[in-house]
Structure to design on (182 residues):
């Protein structure tokens, strides 16, 4: 197995999912910090080039192709989680200042990885270990869709004149007063 490694930078990657504020412990403790991004043609070429330069043996760890969801790549590291660090410390904004919170779905980031040939149970992989991320563009939305409704508009106008389906439910609702109601 080759111990050769290569730094690979991926620019303008669109975030699908991230576990950077807390490690993902689904597969056990201490877990891993990770970010999953959509793979476009530029990212695909960089993945393929690095895989080839490192020997091109085996699969690419974290690489998934799904007919419905498209192609994604997950970059992860457990280095900080093993030391008990909850928040991935190498998250930066465009001014190279630390981020307060992780990038979310649809945000655009730059990623620095260290690619290396690895072996698990005799199976060979090219693994891209997460080294750092930089938020380029914030596209995620924190608002719920109902936040933008006009409060004067009726949300469900088609049901406003219909009687309740169960009279016992309505009777119960009339009897249950909240503590601050007279």
């Amino acid at each position: 197995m080759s111990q050769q490694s290569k730094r690979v930078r991926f620019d303008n990657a669109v975030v699908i999912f991230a576990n950077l504020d807390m490690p993902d412990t689904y597969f056990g403790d201490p877990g891993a910090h990770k970010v999953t991004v959509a793979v476009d043609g530029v990212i695909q070429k960089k993945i393929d080039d690095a895989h080839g330069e490192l020997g091109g043996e085996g699969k690419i760890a974290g690489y998934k192709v799904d007919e419905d969801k498209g192609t994604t790549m997950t970059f992860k590291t457990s280095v900080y989680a093993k030391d008990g660090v909850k928040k991935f410390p190498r998250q930066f904004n465009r001014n190279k200042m630390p981020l307060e919170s992780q990038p979310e779905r649809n945000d655009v980031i730059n990623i620095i990885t260290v690619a290396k040939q690895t072996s698990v149970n005799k199976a060979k992989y090219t693994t891209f270990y997460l080294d750092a991320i930089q938020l380029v563009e914030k596209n995620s939305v924190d608002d719920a869709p109902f936040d933008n409704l006009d409060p004067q508009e009726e949300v469900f106008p088609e049901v406003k004149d219909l009687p309740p389906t169960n009279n016992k439910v309505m009777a119960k609702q009339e009897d249950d007063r909240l503590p601050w109601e007279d």
Summary: The radius of gyration is 24 Å. Helices lie at 41-53, 79-82, 167-175. Residues 114 and 129 are 5 Å apart (CA to CA).
